[in-house]
Amino acid sequence: MDSGSETGIAGQRIDIGCRDGINLGGHLWPAVGRCDGAVIINPATGVLTSYYHRYARFLSAHGFQVLTYDYRGIGLSRPDRLRGCGYRWRDWGALDFEAALTFAREHDPLLPVAVVGHSIGGFLPGFAESAPGIERMLTVGAQYGYWGDYARSQRRSLFWKWHAAMPVLTAVLGYFPGRRLGWLEDLPAGVANEWSFRRARMEHSYPAPERKEIIARFAAVQAPILAIGMSDDPIGTPAAISRGLSYFRNADAKQVTITPGDLGLEAVGHFSLFHQRHANGFWLDTLLWLRDGINPWPQRLCPAPAF
Fold first, then answer.
1. Nearest to residue 107, comparing CAs of 15, 217, 223?
2. Cα(190)–Cα(236) distance, integer angstroms
3. pLDDT per position as a tens digit, 90-107
4. What is the DSSP string of the chain?
5. pLDDT of residue 4
6. What value does the mean pLDDT of the chain take?
7. CA atoms of 263 and 206, how far apart (whole Å)
8. For 9, phi and psi rounded to 5 degrees?
9. How far apart are CA 67 and CA 212, in angstroms?
10. Which end is more exposed in the chain, N or C (fewer Cβ atoms within 10 Å of the end residue's Cβ)?
């Protein structure tokens, strides 16, 4: 059991079985009082699911049953040997998120299932066969790592870090040693290379015969999506978020760009919206969308994706 000491709410340690035999480690957070639905939290690349536990406790305290989990190769789901495991970004969606979605539905079939996805975690649901059953999605800085969409002011440094240094180190070691470098967690080679060599069109990362099915999977998602971006996020820029949303072409998608000033801060960036400091602000606002489908930032709407 996770202690849940901040709020007295505990997450139950669980294992989630994927259809290819891989087991994922995670936690299930029961709703306090009336349950308004289930929420699955999809982490960013190389971020431990424990980073989202405070937000999971917050949601459970406000009437949601919450499922958190680590993707294969990360944290509770890391194998003894990361080198040579062959895990890919696509597997995190088609296999891992699919398994999490199945677990949530089987645990309580009557609950509508919403998804909160951070960074790549907001894009991965499109790979899952069962994603058409999602009730609602809330994404934060969601994109798929195309370097051309990075903020111009940091594009060169981010390109060197993630699209030059990362593939070289991955080729030498057989995995990406992110933890040793202080650059997120270690990553399986397949995940690191998908990120490093991602092209403007996501489907071009995969064999030509598979591309039509991949695009159809994303198009099958019809859940309303609220895609949140921060104006000072160098990775999840408005262009990057729009590019990702364009694949969910049959979903009712709303994109908003919030400024740090909207949250009473000077800077936020790509990672910090799930920090405890946002519990009395941004986190409360997310309840409006998850519970009632209300966009808390109508004045910050962006134009529809134009890709």
1. 15
2. 22
3. 999 999 999 999 999 999
4. ----TTTT--PEEEEEE-TTS-EEEEEEEPPSSS--EEEEEEPPTT--GGGGHHHHHHHHHTTEEEEEEPPTTSGGG--S--TT----HHHIIIIIIHHHHHHHHHH-TTS-EEEEEEGGGGTGGGG-TTGGG--EEEEES-----GGGS-GGGHHHHHHIIIIIHHHHHHHHSEE-HHHHTSSS-EEHHHHHHHHT--SSGGGGS-HHHHHHHHHHHHT--S-EEEEEETT-SSS-HHHHHHHHTT-TTS-EEEEEE-GGGGT-S--TTTGGGSGGGTTTHHHHHHHHHHH---S-GGGBPPPP--
5. 40
6. 95
7. 39
8. -100, 130
9. 31
10. N
Question: Alpha carbon 62 to chain centroid distance?
Answer: 21
Report the distance separating Cα 44 and Cα 133, nearest Å: 22
pLDDT tens-digit profile of 111-154? Answer: 999 999 999 999 999 999 999 999 999 999 999 999 999 999 99
Output the six-digit token pair for 146: 């195309």
| Alpha carbon distances (Å) from 36 to 26, 185, 253 | 21, 33, 22
User: What six digits make up the tokens of 220?
Assistant: 């099958």
What residue type is 165 in one-letter code? Answer: A
Contacting residues for 14 by C-beta, under 8 A, at least 6 apart: 25, 26, 27, 28, 103
